[in-house]
Amino acid sequence: MNTELLGSIIQIILMVVLAYPLGKYIAKVYKGEKTCFDFLAPVERWIFKICGIDPKEEMSWKSFLKALLTVNLFWFFWGMILLWTQQYLPLNPDGNAGQSSHLSFNTCISFMVNCNLQHYSGESGLTYFTQLFVIMLFQFITAATGMAALAGIFKAMAAKTTKTIGNFWDLLMKSCTRILLPLSLVVGFILILQGTPMGFDGKMQLTTLEGHEQQISQGPAAAIIPIKQLGTNGGGYFGVNSSHPLENPTYLTNMVECWAILILPMAMVFALGFYLKRKKLSYTIFGVMLFAYLVSVGINTYYEMNGNPKIAEMGIDQAAGAMEGKETRLGAAATALWSCTTTVTSNGSVNGMHDSTMPLSGMMEMLNMQINTWFGGVGVGFMNYYAFLIIAVFISGLMVGRTPEFLGKKVEAREMKIATIVALAHPFVILIGTAVACYYYVYNPAFVEAEGGWLNNPGFHGLSEMLYEYTSSSANNGSGFEGLGDNTWFWNFTTGLALIISRYLPIVGQVAIAGLLAQKKFIPESAGTLKTDTATFAVMTFSVIFIVAALSFFPALTLGPIAEYFSIYL
Amino acid sequence: MKENRSASLFPKELVIESLKQSFVKLDPRTMFRNPIMFIVEVVTFVMLIVTVWAAATGNTAQGLAGYNIVVFIVLFLTLLFANFAEAIAEARGKAQADSLRKTREETPAKRVDANGTVTTVSSSQLKKGDVFICEAGDTIPSDGEIIEGLASIDESAITGESAPVIREAGGDKSSVTGGTKVLSDQIRVMVTTQPGESFLDKMIALVEGASRKKTPNEIALTILLAGFTLVFVVVCGTLKPLADYSGTQITIAAFISLFVCLIPTTIGGLLSAIGIAGMDRALRANVITKSGKAVETAGDIDTLLLDKTGTITIGNRKATQFYPVAGVDEHSFVQACLMASLSDETPEGKSIVELGRERGIRIRDLSTSGSRMIRFTAETKCSGVDLKDGTRIRKGAFDAIRRMSEAAGNKYPEEVAGLVGKISGNGGTPLVVSQDDFIIGVIELQDIIKPGIQERFERLRKMGVKTVMVTGDNPLTAKYIAEKAGVDDFIAEAKPEDKMNYIRKEQEAGKLVAMMGDGTNDAPALAQANVGVAMNSGTQAAKEAGNMVDLDNDPTKLIEIVEIGKQLLMTRGTLTTFSIANDVAKYFAIVPALFMVAIPQLAALNVMRLHSPESAILSAVIFNAVIIPILIPLALRGVAYKPIGASALLRRNLLIYGVGGVIAPFIGIKLIDMMVSLFF
């Protein structure tokens, strides 16, 4: 069998197999049961004491969200100030400058919302200090924010009737210390062994084999890369992310890093089953997500490994696949797998350039983010699925002649209103953003010219680049079709806006739905109750997600990747 | 089930009236209640302006004039079809209610004035609190409560049931309905409702729309549909700059067509018709609902409280066996039983005579002349006869006879105690017989379980509805009948407050409870139950307390009501699914048509091989319009409910309306395109 494919298959098997025990462990952590990391408890208590927080206080969904939003606002100011003033701060051996106001706005927002859209390059745009105390810090706490929100939802779903959904601070802390930190240490250790730099020296001066002088950036990379992958953050230490030989030195690190992207989102689904003691429900949800993921992996692997027919026509060998924008040491299949893994989750790290992937691969990358529910970001991924689950429950409940209920709670107008807003906000932001960009491009060329022209590729692909940028921002993904010149006033601000809306609106909405449902009277199951852990309901949920989320983008995708596809293949 | 179902869904006179209403309802103030169709109206108006403007200026950038006109007409028809659906549902409901109401209009009423004189006035002049007299042959002019007298009444005008019923003052059978006919005797009736405020009037108002409120579930669905509509506003609105970027010209007609096709007009157009049809179906089952919400709630019922008598068993018990005590000859025992029952007019008494006849003992052989009948009273709990020779025969509840016998110094035989226990254990009622205070035997009375009732309960169980039998019987008897009839639980020796407590207990566990009742002492429980169905023959208090009134006084009606409620929700759900699933095909019809000219490669997306961009767009909008009238019969009749379990039902409906909803428009649009391609 083709070793490239074998590599992909092994990676997927490793994800699924290891996600199961990890899910069990996560459920234990959030339930407050005994785990092997309980020796950290004194440290946690000490931190809570300093901050004056009572981690035992039970919060209503409203105070839970208040805590979440307040701390996020605090981090925003923290990040803005550090990024602006980084040239005056220590740990800047390369003497990098501070960021412009619109760039620091974009960077700060983007890391605060767990997106990690990078309109700068890590080597020159940041210092070691900001890499550690803005980037890495945010990569831990924002991932933990999503996880804590989901843990609150778990609690709301598990309880018969409750007014409280747990303590945000406690869940946030536990997500960091009990889950993200241990896993990051393991991954970081492997990276260091494989040659990823870890230190505080400035640029390395080298003489190449050709005799040229070359400057090589380094720094505390191995500390940041693991959490970048595990926390579905994706913001690379180096500009070209995990296609950089120091960020991702070998095929082994590539496997580990790719595994690290999906392991937590997968484990969170299993954790749901263990937490609620409804394993079958988690299996059906996992099944739907895995199916969608595998379809996308299949399509991308097929197109990337088969190369570009137009280039083949020019007499250039395409036996290795479509290698433009890919690392030869990783190969087409590994890049195809990564491109799907990073887009089904809201990770956004890359090991090859998505801009150069084949049209339908690019479409699948966008579609994964436009749907944004197949595993998704840590915590928030399942929460997005949850909103669609509510819509699917509603329609199918009606179809069996009963007022819809989910896990014993009636779904009524108020929940539907929130679920509808949350589910539809995503296409709103993406389509309106892209439309505004197109409008400026067509009707205000002078403005676009002043910003550097934006597009490196005209035609269908140019549209794809703009669509991708808003899709990635709105999905809090952070990858890009990097042909787009996006470090400009327009892109920094508009995508920053998209980032804020698409992060906080869903979190607030989803926690609110769970909190509202939790307050309702519990209705015991009867023979007339619609079971939500069956294959039929799984198909129903998939169809709802596909028709609502995917079809809204059909006209836009037609003008971008689909038109491009037919231009190449017809 | 008696149904006054008209043979056709669309009687001619209703259709004509509904067609008129379809235009009247175009009034934007009316349309505003339905956000989806309101938006369609707005874009139709825009299309009209575009058509006129293009024709007036001779501008062809927006397509040919003929094409624009056709698009406008199709959009306009979409609106009319949706309005027609609502109008015909209203008209049918109204016609049904009118036919009930007509029976009671303008009948002469013999009003008793304050000074006692009787004046004949028209029924419409009767006010609440007025008293009127009805004699044999009179039609009762208004709903009311008998305050004096007893009469047999023919209620066939309302219920379709020809057997006359007895109504009398006091007790739980004191209500009379306007339009029914007094067959015998004379009654004095007090009017209980103001003219125009009867339940029927209220229901008509509900159907007519003025006071029709959206039910909670309808609101939730409307929110979802409005959300879908909004997202398609964005999808279509943002397409303009995207198309500009790609150098594609899209006409306004094409934009509007794409938009109208994508938003869920099918369910949007039929939504209110479905709700009205639900109430209408209830009315056709002779149930007056006080709100649409009650019908909807009925579909969610978890627990059903059913009175044993009349629902599970045929109203009356029948004698099935004679048990003489040791030392008493069977023949003379049966003779004694028959003599005690000869002039007993109760069904039980008659059944004893009948059973005796089967045993070969004829009534005329018995000499009862000069004997005196003793009627059953609540105090003595027994009845019987004093013969001319002084022999006293009594039959009654075992404790009553025992007391009587022991008072006379006789021993209560252990054998009898054994018999009584055995009969009760078999679900029967023992009737102990004594002669001159000596107990001579026991008659077994048995409840007769209604044929087919087990299957109905099985059906309910599959729907997930728990059935509870309420009976005054002792626990042993109750348990036996409960098991035999297949109910899930029972309340024995039930007092009115027991019902109430049971309902509360179930509701605390999060369940929805339905019950039926007629007596004033049922009123609190009827009010407490999520669905309380009062019998029309019941007291005014009961009717006020419940949220439905059953004109047939048929206790099994609850089962039908539950199904009607489920049908209502299912029809909404399946048509929503169908409507959304249709979008897949519509995308594939319109999107290639929009871009094919500017980007020829995209013709590959035209999987249906539609003739031209114009024909493709027209076919999609035409399909979108005609699917509404095609589905009106389904919306009015409701999707058939099959009690096969929720998951199986979902699978079934998903296959029919989901997969069907994806495939049907592909076929439909292609067929329409073949016709349209002759012109465009």
Automatic annotation (TrEMBL), chain A:
GO CC term (a single one): plasma membrane
Any one GO MF annotation of this record: potassium ion binding
Compartments, as annotated in UniProt: Cell membrane
Membrane topology category: Multi-pass membrane protein
Transport among keywords: yes
Record InterPro entries: KdpA
Coarse class of the protein's main subcellular location: membrane
Record keywords: Cell membrane, Ion transport, Membrane, Potassium, Potassium transport, Transmembrane, Transmembrane helix, Transport
TM annotation in the entry: 6-23, 64-84, 132-158, 179-200, 259-276, 283-303, 374-400, 421-442, 489-517, 537-557
Quaternary context: The system is composed of three essential subunits: KdpA, KdpB and KdpC.
NCBIfam families from the UniProt entry: kdpA
Family to which the UniProt record says this protein belongs: Belongs to the KdpA family.
The protein's role, per its UniProt record: Part of the high-affinity ATP-driven potassium transport (or Kdp) system, which catalyzes the hydrolysis of ATP coupled with the electrogenic transport of potassium into the cytoplasm. This subunit binds the extracellular potassium ions and delivers the ions to the membrane domain of KdpB through an intramembrane tunnel.
Name of the featured protein: Potassium-transporting ATPase potassium-binding subunit
Underlying gene: kdpA
Automatic annotation (TrEMBL), chain B:
UniProt cross-references to PROSITE patterns, sorted A to Z: ATPASE_E1_E2, COF_2
Catalytic activity entry: K(+)(out) + ATP + H2O = K(+)(in) + ADP + phosphate + H(+)
Organism: Parabacteroides acidifaciens
Binding, ATP: 344, 348, 376-383, 395
Protein name, per record: Potassium-transporting ATPase ATP-binding subunit
Record-listed E.C. numbers: 7.2.2.6
Lineage: Bacteria, Pseudomonadati, Bacteroidota, Bacteroidia, Bacteroidales
HAMAP family for the chain: KdpB
Primary role: Part of the high-affinity ATP-driven potassium transport (or Kdp) system, which catalyzes the hydrolysis of ATP coupled with the electrogenic transport of potassium into the cytoplasm. This subunit is responsible for energy coupling to the transport system and for the release of the potassium ions to the cytoplasm.
InterPro entries in the record: ATPase_P-typ_cyto_dom_N, ATPase_P-typ_P_site, ATPase_P-typ_TM_dom_sf, ATPase_P-typ_transduc_dom_A_sf, ATPase_P-type_domA, HAD-like_sf, HAD_sf, P-type_ATPase_bsu_IA
Quaternary structure and interacting proteins, as annotated: The system is composed of three essential subunits: KdpA, KdpB and KdpC.
Transmembrane segments: 36-58, 64-85, 219-240, 252-274, 584-604, 616-634, 654-672
Molecular functions (GO terms): ATP binding; ATP hydrolysis activity; magnesium ion binding; P-type potassium transmembrane transporter activity
Transport as UniProt keyword: yes
Class in the EC hierarchy, top level: translocase
Main location: membrane
Family: Belongs to the cation transport ATPase (P-type) (TC 3.A.3) family. Type IA subfamily.
Any single GO CC term annotated in Swiss-Prot or TrEMBL for this entry: plasma membrane
Catalytic residues as annotated in Swiss-Prot or TrEMBL: 307
Coiled-coil residue spans: none
Designated gene of the protein: kdpB
P-type ATPase A domain sequence ranges: 107-208
Membrane topology: Multi-pass membrane protein
Gene3D superfamilies: Calcium-transporting ATPase, cytoplasmic domain N, Calcium-transporting ATPase, cytoplasmic transduction domain A, HAD superfamily/HAD-like
Binding residues for Mg(2+): 518, 522
